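Hi all, posting the design record for the shared folder.

TITLE: backbone redesign
STEP: 1 of 1
STRUCTURE INPUT:
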């Protein structure tokens, strides 16, 4: 399977502002080689010729990520090939056959990189990566709650501990001390920032549609009867689409709540996956 990780920053170089026609190539191999050479040599003018001046209309206005560029250069030198289907072609590089998210298309004038389709592809990949990261974070949360229970004989009701206490899943460890069950990423310093495009909130009860029926997880101030979590995109259809839920049973449920995701999630107070929620395959 191709590793379709995001590398949008690869083309985020500071290019000259003048307008010029995008270069056309006889074969997709020539187009790919010209692109790679421009990246390897950090030739901004050559990259502008290959991608065209209008790339700014379709890709974020960011600077290049040096690590992403270095990774592409390394993988290009290891191996590269062209996957061609009809009048569309993609460049794949490296042992993992990573695919550049900028397709090459054929017209009467020749082959060229299609920046509009690249923007769509990068957007799709970004959402996919964020959703995958959210599920990985959910699994980390489940493991952290289990570890916390071993320490405290109850589950944590919040992500970050009160200063000087260990009443959350994360606390700063002193030298020589075992690390906390979870890192601080679930509670970012800047409100609204999220983690890989997702927000997370602990749920302290479950509803009638949950396995085991309706019940509170908290009794006498301690959450010992279970735990749950809900994760939803910071910005629907931009940072993610799917909303996820999990309980102490470890099964992740997912649902597309639509444009009103934030409002609908605000109303969810219990872990209650009815038939409209789908189980994530294990």
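Okay, here is what came back for every position:
SEQUENCE:
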């Amino acid at each position: 399977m191709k590793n379709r990780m995001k590398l949008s920053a690869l083309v985020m170089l500071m290019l000259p502002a003048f307008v010029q026609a995008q270069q056309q190539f006889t074969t997709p191999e020539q187009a790919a080689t010209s692109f790679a050479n421009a990246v390897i040599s950090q030739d901004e003018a050559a990259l502008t010729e290959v991608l065209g001046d209008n790339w700014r209309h379709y890709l974020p206005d960011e600077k290049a990520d040096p690590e992403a560029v270095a990774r592409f250069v390394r993988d290009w030198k290891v191996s590269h090939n062209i996957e061609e289907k009809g009048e569309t072609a993609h460049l794949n590089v490296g042992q993992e056959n990573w695919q550049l998210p900028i397709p090459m298309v054929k017209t009467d004038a020749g082959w060229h990189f299609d920046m509009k389709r690249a923007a769509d592809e990068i957007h799709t990949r970004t959402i996919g990566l964020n959703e995958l990261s959210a599920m990985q974070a959910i699994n980390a949360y489940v493991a952290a709650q289990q570890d916390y229970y071993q320490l405290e004989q109850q589950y944590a009701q919040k992500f970050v501990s009160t200063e000087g206490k260990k009443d959350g899943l994360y606390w700063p460890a002193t030298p020589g001390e075992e690390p906390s069950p979870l890192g601080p990423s679930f509670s970012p310093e800047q409100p609204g920032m999220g983690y890989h495009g997702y927000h997370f909130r602990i749920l302290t009860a479950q509803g009638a549609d949950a396995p085991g029926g309706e019940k509170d997880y908290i009794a006498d101030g301690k959450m010992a009867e279970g735990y749950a979590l809900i994760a939803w995109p910071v910005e629907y259809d931009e940072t993610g689409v799917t909303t996820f839920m999990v309980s102490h049973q470890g099964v992740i449920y997912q649902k597309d709540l639509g444009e009103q995701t934030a409002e609908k999630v605000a109303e969810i107070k219990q872990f209650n996956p009815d038939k409209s929620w789908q189980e994530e395959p294990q």
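COMMENT: The first strand starts at residue 80 and ends at 85.
Let me know if anyone wants the other runs.
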